[in-house]
Amino acid sequence: MIMSKASTVVVSSPTASCLRLTGVVLDFTSRRPLSADFYIQTPGGRRQVGRSLDETGTFTLNLDCGVRMLIIERTGYRTQTLGLNTKVKSNQTDAVSVIIPLLAVDRQGSDQPYLQTEQTHFVQPTAQEVIKGRQPNAFAVTDALTGRAVPAQVCFISTESGKKQCLTSDNSGIVTTSFTQRDIVALEVIASGYQSYQGNFIVDVLDGQLRKHHIRLLRSLTILSVQAASAAYQYVLRSESGGKEIKLTGVPGYPETFVAYELLPQRYQLLVINGQGTVQERRLITVLSGLNTVSVSGLEKVTGSTVTSPAPGWNPADSLPALYFQQSSYELLQQSETVLKEVAALLRSNPNYTLHLTGHTDNEGDERLNLVLSEFRANVVAAYLRRQGVADKQLVRSWRGSQLPVAPNDREENRAKNRRVSLSLVRNTP
Fold it and tell me: Cα angle at 97 between 94 and 99, to 5 degrees?
C-alpha cells in the first residue's frame, strides 16, 4: 500500500524492512525534480513500490530483504535500474539517501539518432523520388552519465533494402559510415555491461557534409552515498586508474549526505577536504555496481603535504604546443604526430605525470556539432598516444566546442588557431 506523507511517498512492505531508501529524482541534464515510479521484480511480476513527488522529486521507500533491484520509470525518460547488494542492506540501520538521475529519451528528428519508441509517422520516398547523393556520418558511443567513450558494436539496418551492416567502434567509441539514399535506418548498439540501444535514424539530406552524432548508452546505476561528518567539507573521489576527480553532490533536503552517481564500478580514493583546500582524511574504497554506502567516521588522518617535487632531471613546462586541425576535421596532421611521439616518450618515462588534453573548435556551424567535433579531436589524440604505449590512466580528456577561443573568430587565419587540442602536463599527487 502506498501512503502519501507531506513531501515524500512512503511504501509499506509486507515483510521485514531491511533498507529505508530516501532521496530525490532529478533530470540528469537540467537537475529539475521529477515525479517517477519505482518498481521491484517479484516471482509474480513487477510491483510498484513508490513514486516521487512532482514538486520536489523526493521519495521514501521501505524495502524488504528480498529486494535485489529497483526499476525507476517516467514517461519521456529512459528506464533506470539500481541494484541493492546484500551487504548494504544488512549493515544499514539508518536511512540511505541518494540522487536518482533520469535521462530524457532522444526524440525523432531528421539526420539524428532517436529511440525506436519515439518513432512517429514518416513518409518514405517512392522509387521516382529517390535522391542520389552521399551522407557521411560519425557516431560516437559514450556512457550516458560519465561521457566516457564505450567500445561497441553498431548495426545499421536499412528499411528500404533490408540490408544489415555491423561495425565495431574503435577505442574512442567512434564508428563511421556513409548512406547513399534517403531512408529510415534502424540502429542496434551493443556494448558489454550496458543496456542495448534500439534506435532509428532518418537519412534525409544527401549533401556530402559529415554529420556527427552521439549515442548514449545506459548501464545499471552505480551510486555512492556518503554519510558525512560535516557538511562544511568537500568530498571527492579519485580513481586509482587516473582520470578526473569526482566531487560528490549534496542530496537536497539531506544536508549531511553526499552522493556520486557518474561512477564506474572500480576502486577509488575518497578524500575529505576542508575549507582551505587541505586533504584532512582519506580512504580507499571499492565501488560495486548498484548502491554503495560509506560513513566518513574513522577515516585515516593525513599528515603532511601530499604534493612532492618533480622528478630530478626533468622539469617539464606545464603547457605543451597545441595540435591544430583542418576545418570540420579530426584527422591528425603529420606535424601533430611528431609532437605526440615526443609527448608519448615523456609520459612513458614519467608515469607519475598525467596529460590533460582538451578539444576545441572555431565557431562555424552548429555549436552542438562543434562540441561533438571537439570530443572527436580529443579522442583521436588520446587513441594515438595509447598506440604509442602511454597508459590510459595518464590521459584525461575533455572537450569544449567553441567556448574557449584563443583568437577572435573574425577571419580564417584566427579561426585556424581555435581548431585545436590543447595539452597540459600535471604531476599526480600520491
Answer: 170
